[in-house]
Structure formats: C-alpha cells, structure tokens
Specification:
Length: 658
C-alpha cells in the first residue's frame, strides 16, 4: 500500500525533483569519465568500438535503482522499501518476475478447477448414483431394532375362566445411600405391605450401600401403595410376568414359565408355539442421528386368541381338597385323581398331591413339580383285571357266564399265587371274579389263551408305549420282552392280576375308557384349541382317530360286571344311591430294587365309570404308599366324592330305576 504524508502530492513531486537532479549530476559525471577514457584510447592508438556512448539510459535512474533493489532477496527488498517509505513504479514488468507469477497463477487455478471437478463428482455420486443406498443406510442408523414385548396368549379353561395371563409387575430395590429416613423406619413402613418381619427387612437394608433387591412380582396396586409413602431410596423396576389366578388348582396341567417367559412344564411348555404371538418387529428412532422416519413407526394390534383347555377349573378346585384329605388320612406318600370324557379323551381334571403354586414355582421341591400321573410308573394290580377279562372275551377264550374254581391258592411253574386274603371263593363266574377280585380266578381265565396271543393283545392295547397325551415328560410303560413273557408261565400268570408290568396312571385311565365308550382306544388330551373372543376356532389339535380294540358287546359286558363290584363287591365305598356306577379296586405290592416285592409298601387305586346306562366319565384315583388299607378303603371313597362333585357340576341326573 502506497505511503503518503500530510502534504500529499506536493511532497511526492518535490521528492522526485530531488531524485532527478541527483540523477542528472551522476549522468554528467559518467559522461565526463567516458570522454576522458576515449581521449586516452585515442592517444594510445586504440579504436573506438562505437561512435556512441556504451551506456544508454532509456529509463530514469530511479527505475534503475528499483530494478537493482528487486534483484535482492525478497526479505531485504521488503525491509528496504519499508525503511525508505518509497514505492517504486516501473512502467515495464521485469521478465524475472513475470514468468514465476504466471506459472503460480496457472498452477493455483488448475488446482482449484481440479478440486472443483472432484467435488462435483462426489456430489453427483452422493446425490444421484448412491442416493437410495445412502438413504437406506441413514434409516438403518436412525432405527434401533429391539425385540418387542409381546405378551403370551392367555390360557382359559372350558368355561373361559382365565388360568394364565401376562400382567405388569414390579421388582422393589433399595438404595440405602439415598435414604432420608432410618433403616428401621423404612423397614417398619414396608413390613406390613410386603408381609415380612421388620427385623428381617432391617437386616436386609443394612446388607449393602445400594441395589438391594427386596422383592419381586409386586402387583401394580401394591407398588402404588408403597410409592404413596414417598420413601426416598426405593426403586421400582417394571417388567411383565405370567400370572396364574387359580394358583395351584391347575398347576399340573397349565405348568409354568421361567423368568424369561419360556414354558417349563405343562401346557405352557408343550404348546409354546400356540401361546406365542407373532407380530411385526418394533423399531425405535434415534432423533440425535436423524429425523424421525415415519416408516419406523410400527403399530401393531395383538390378536384376541386364547388357548382353551378341556380342563374344568371348578372341578380342579373342588377335587384337590378331597385328594389332600384322603392322602393325609392314610399317611400316604402322594396321590393323583383324573377325570376324562370317555367319548373323545378330553381331560376334565388332573390333580396331584403334593403340588405347587406356579406363581412361585421356584419355592417348590422337585417332587412337587413332577406330574407323576404321567412321569412315574406303577403296577396297577386288580384295576387291570377288567381289561384282561375283555381280552379273554374278545378272543373267545371265555364267555360271560364261564365259571372257575378258586381254592384260594395255586402254584404256577413252582410259584405260589393266592388271593389277597388267602381264602378261596370256590366255584365263581367271571362277574364274581371281578367283584371279589380273585387272583386265582383271573389266572384260570388267562390260562384259556396262549401266552403268545395274550402278549399280542397287550401290545395292541399300547402297553409299553405312552398314552400320547399333550403334556410333556410322559414316559412309556414297561412290558417284558416277548421271549420272557412267552418263555415263563409265571409271567402271564402275574400279568393276569395286574402285576409284572408297569404303566402310568394316565395310561391306565386311557385303558379303562375303552370299557366305557364301546371299546375305542382314545388319546387323552387337555387342549381344545385356539379360539377368539367370539368362540370361533382358529386352530385345533390334530388328534389320532379313536382305535377300535374291543367290540361294543365285549365292553358292555365287562361294564356290567364292574357295576356289580360297586353294588356288592370290593368297590362299595364308591356307591352313590340313585346312580349306576361301574368300578374296580386295585391293591398292588410295590416292587423293590432287588427285583422282588415289598411286604409293606403298596399302591392303592380305584377306577369308576358313570353313568353306566350312558357312560360319559371315567374317574381314577391312585394313592401311593398309604399306611395300611386297600383300594376299596383308601381310593374308592375319594372317587365317590369326586363323582358327587362331577354330578353336581355337570348336572348328571339319577338313573331311572326299574
């Protein structure tokens, strides 16, 4: 930038005048020196190379000085200019400066143009070529997929009473470092709500500085009650949990889920797929990464389907105390009661004792969690005698009026076989053999057919297999091999009165149903299907069709013989005035680990069918290891009470007596 003083142009003109005068004086001095040198050359004989002076000054001396200054290094030149305060003005740019400046200018513009082209190419690539791809990447970054909380479908009974449903619950945590009240005061406030001793809560509150879990599965009402106390340092963690309103009354059938909501037993496990809802994934949008993407707003509607069972929760609730009382009365180890519709195998009731509360399954022992009506085997004893009679009648080995002599004890292949009381009944017919539960009479009946044919029938009836019930963990029955059975006469003899093989209670229930439904082997089941709120089915289990194993005539004949057992035989403990009931008692010795039988441990049972005139229900009670008693004394009264409950619930009218 040009420097000027306060006098403006006048000062600049004066300065140039001084400079021109100095230049003129220097020029004259140079000319004089040149003339002197030429004269000396002439005197010495030298020849001038030019008639004109060697130096020609086409520019002012000031320009010459400026050119000389430009040849100096840039820094000194700049300092020189700043010190002199004079800016030179050259009318012709120097070649040494013009050439580098032009090169630099071209280089800079080339770089700028190239950069601009690269930038435009990138913009084109981003905005046009990869536009869709980048938009999708942006949406992916904005959306954070997360597994949606989808409640399991509810489980209902045959009357649509809720048996299992998801509900919001809370876990309660304490952070003592945030307390404003004393630990003792807080424990005093919480104890009546949590139903825990104050001392226990105080000890727990002192167990750490923070994050102390006090309880789980608090209901919304209970959590709200605690929140209204405004206690600093308490935290509620919300989550969902499976709730079983009927508690233990349906535990054996419904089962339970774990903390992750996965079925672990019962229907909850066996029908996991039907209980899970499948919906569209829910996505959350991160607004810090990008604007809300409307496509990420997934809305969904839960279906109203529910898994409907064949179980009657009313029957379950009323039968349980009956079973508990019977087991307790006889000091037994355990017991089970089942009720099935003989027409299609629908299970109306399955109650075990001991049992558990599915809401707090983690407090139960393994014995209580086991559904032993499916998972354990027992030797049925005399309740299997009607099945053997049906086999003998169906094959023609005997007739309904056939009779046999019972001396009280016989020997088969050297092994003694006798009646429970060791007494004989003399000449008795088939109905009396069932009624008085004669072991000797049953051995004589089954001796009328070959062991091989007998074994074929046992296989045909499914002994050694499962009942195919739609509940988990059922184990198959145990039957000796054909070689063992056919090769030893005592095997067929012991099987004749229900020992020497093992089945589960549910398999026995299935076999007894064949005598009530005209000889059909049905598959027991607990699930009716998936239904909506208007009772329209959306899915139903594909059950195997009933398999005819006995003729209706055979089944009818045996059923009449079993009715005589209740009227005048060992099953009189199940008699209900005004109703025709068929039944059979069972008392079997328990096998030991060494292969023999215990002298004291027994299994008692009773099976009842009603009404005989139009069979609809079969009821089985099994009581394991009672202290004394027999099937007629221990199990028959339990079945009687259950049938009385069933009559009231189902409205079964009394028989029309002739």
């Amino acid at each position: 930038m040009r420097k000027t003083n306060r006098f403006g142009k006048r000062a600049g003109t004066a300065r140039r005048a001084v400079e021109n005068q100095a230049s003129s004086r220097r020029l004259n001095s140079l000319r004089q020196d040149r003339s002197s040198r030429n004269k000396r050359k002439d005197q010495t004989g030298g020849e001038s190379r030019s008639s004109e002076p060697v130096l020609r000054f086409e520019k002012p001396i000031s320009s010459l000085r400026e050119s000389q200054r430009l040849r100096q290094p840039y820094r000194s030149h700049q300092n020189d200019r700043e010190s002199s305060g004079i800016e030179s003005h050259s009318s012709h740019p120097q070649t040494s400066l013009a050439r580098p400046s032009r090169f630099r200018l071209v280089l800079v513009w080339s770089i700028l143009i190239a950069g601009g082209l690269v930038l435009m190419a990138n913009v084109f690539d981003l905005q046009v070529v990869r536009s869709n791809q980048l938009q999708q990447m942006a949406r992916t970054q904005q959306q954070s997929p997360m597994p949606a909380f989808v409640p399991r479908r509810p489980i209902v009974d045959r009357q649509n009473n809720i048996l299992a449903v998801d509900r919001p619950v809370y876990s309660l945590y304490a952070h003592p470092t945030l307390f404003r009240l004393s630990h003792e005061d807080i424990a005093t406030e919480l104890a009546p709500i949590l139903k825990r001793p104050v001392d226990e809560l105080v000890k727990e509150l002192y167990s750490g500085p923070s994050g102390i879990r006090l309880t789980d599965f608090l209901s919304e009402a209970t959590a709200g009650e605690i929140q209204r106390k405004w206690i600093d340092g308490l935290e509620f963690v919300h989550h969902s949990a499976r709730h079983y309103p009927r508690s233990e009354s349906v535990a054996e059938v419904v089962g339970y889920v774990n903390f992750d909501g996965e079925g672990q037993a019962g229907v909850e496990l066996n029908h996991q797929d039907e209980l899970k809802r499948s919906i569209e994934e829910i996505s959350l949008v991160d607004e810090e990464i990008g604007p809300i993407d409307r496509s990420a707003r997934h809305f969904f509607q839960l279906d109203d389907l529910r898994l409907k069972l064949t179980i009657d929760s009313r029957l379950q609730r009323l039968v349980r105390p009956v079973l508990n009382e019977g087991v307790s009365k006889w000091g037994a180890k355990r017991g089970t009661v089942m009720v099935m519709d003989v027409r299609d195998g629908s299970l109306l009731c399955l109650v075990n004792t001991p049992s558990f509360d599915p809401n707090r399954y983690f407090d139960a022992d393994l014995a209580s969690l086991k559904n032993w009506a499916l998972t354990d085997l027992y030797e049925p004893g005399s309740t299997f005698k009607p099945i053997n009679v049906a086999i003998a009648l169906e094959t023609g080995a005997i007739q309904p009026n056939s009779s046999f002599y019972d001396p009280g004890q016989i020997f088969v292949d050297g092994w003694p076989i006798g009646n429970a009381g060791r007494g004989g009944f003399g000449q008795i017919d088939v109905a009396e053999i069932i009624s008085v539960s004669s072991n000797v009479g049953m051995v004589r009946i089954m001796e009328q057919m070959s062991a091989s044919d007998y074994y074929d029938w046992l296989e045909k009836l499914g002994l050694g297999e499962t009942s195919q019930i739609d509940l988990p963990f059922e184990i198959p029955g145990q039957l000796k091999s054909r070689e063992q059975f056919v090769g030893s006469p005592v095997e067929a003899a012991t099987t004749a009165f229900g020992q020497g093989f093992a089945i589960s209670p549910i398999q026995m229930l299935r076999l007894q149903a064949t005598l009530a439904n005209g000889g059909k082997l049905v598959v027991p089941h607990t699930v009716d299907g998936l239904f909506d709120s208007e009772e329209r089915p959306h899915w139903q289990p594909d059950l195997p069709p009933p398999r005819q194993v006995f003729s209706p005539e055979t089944a009818g004949s045996v059923l009449e013989m079993m009715e005589q057992t209740v009227e005048s035989g060992t099953g009189q403990g199940a008699y209900i005035p005004g109703y025709r009931i068929a039944g059979k008692t069972g008392t079997a010795q328990k096998s030991t680990a060494g292969g023999g039988y215990s002298d004291s441990a027994i299994v008692t049972s009773f099976v009842g069918i009603l009404p005989v005139e139009s069979p609809r229900y079969v009821v089985l009670a099994v009581v394991d290891e009672p202290n004394g008693g027999s099937g007629g004394e221990v199990a028959a009264p339990i079945v009687k009470s259950v049938m009385e409950i069933l009559i009231g619930i189902e409205g079964i009218p009394p028989a029309e007596l002739e």
